[in-house]
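Comment thread on ticket #2218

A.B. wrote:
> Attaching the input chain for the structure job we discussed in standup.
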Amino acid sequence: MISFATSLETILLLSVSASVLHVDGTRSLKRNAGDGVAYAIFDVHEFRYLNLTTLMSASVKKLGECGKLCVDHCSCFSANLAAFADQDGWILCELLPSDRYNNSEKFLENAMFHHLSIKASKF
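C.D. wrote:
> Ran it. Output below, let me know if you need it in another format.
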């Protein structure tokens, strides 16, 4: 089962294959550790782009699919997502090996992309 809840600022992505779900509220990211549960809480930065070499690019239909690709890729820590779909409804998703906190000088305004960053923990 895959589910996600979105607002303009945040997306929570859950990927569950176990019968019991436990989301640790102190963590913004959990990759599948053998218990069948993976999740991430992403901040969505509209019209921003992190200018890094991509791990991989894919075409997706929804924002949540881009988030799931990042959660499933062990080296992904953020993603750029095209702000507009192409004529066939596909949206470009770029998985990135780092985040805006470690590359703030490369976190740019951009009219064509949104940026998804794993939410910084408050703890």
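A.B. wrote:
> Thanks. Noting for the ticket: Residues 1-8, 13-26 have pLDDT under 50 and may be disordered.
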